[in-house]
Amino acid sequence: MSKLKSFVGLDLLTIKPYFSRKNIMLYIASMLFLTIIIGESSFGIVIGIWIATMFIGYSFTVGDKSNMDALYITLSVDRRTVVLGRYVFTFLLNVCTILSAYVVATVGIFAAQIAGYASGTEFAPWTIIPMVAFILIIQALQLPLYFRFGYTKAKFISVLPNIAMIAGIMAFGALNRSTEISSRIDEFINPTSSGWLTAGAVLALCFVVFISFRLSLAFYRKREF
Q1: Single pTM value for the model
Q2: How many CB atoms lie within 10 A of CB 39?
Q3: What is the domain partition of the chain in residue ranges?
């Protein structure tokens, strides 16, 4: 357990240089801009997990450049600890960025409402949750490939979250403009069925993450450093 905590702490240190004041201000500006355009404070959840997905690759990038994998072997850190630590790090990163982005987005849209530039802060789970689930699945796809090939060879998949984000923004806007589609989706996701749908989605995501972890562990054990 101590090695796992140390490994997660090491991953946090590797991405710390990317949290410069300039980068943070850029992320905040992006959150505010996209949230005000959409007119939905809960969209900050999507923005947060999108940012987290970009940061996941940074730890692999630093590992490739500094040959950290060979260092883990020298320090007697077994490969299961490395893989599990990277998944724990990903989970913590998702939680922190989602919460931070949501707070920033809520404050931003509240200020925009006061200024008369935005309206509506109602949570729309039928648009937010599928986008978050989709990006989480992309993360589950990315990690095994990073463990198998390293970031340099697998970095082409890093564009997938950006494509998903753009597609999600376009879809969100289209759904918001179509009241008929929105009402039908609201009828489908009613209080009676929404609980079952949410539980089913969570279980499905847990299964996907478990398979992703097993694949990552199998791939990483076969690599030579």
Answers
A1: 0.80
A2: 19
A3: 2-222
Please tell me the distance from the alpha carbon of residue 50 to that of residue 168, in angstroms, as a whole number.
11
Output the tens digit of pLDDT for each of the chain's 225 residues.
677 888 888 788 877 777 778 888 888 887 777 777 776 777 777 778 888 888 888 888 877 777 777 777 777 778 888 899 999 999 998 888 888 888 888 887 777 777 666 555 455 555 677 777 888 888 898 899 888 888 777 777 667 666 766 676 666 556 555 555 455 555 555 544 556 667 777 888 899 999 999 999 999 988 876
Contact 1, 75 (CB under 8 A): no
Query: How far is 106 from 172, CA to CA, in rounded Å?
Result: 18
Angle at 9 between CA 22 and CA 164, to 5 degrees: 55
| Cα–Cα distance for residue pair 127/116, rounded to 1 Å | 24
Closest C-alpha among 128, 141, 164, 153 to residue 56: 141
* Residue 120 DSSP one-character state: -
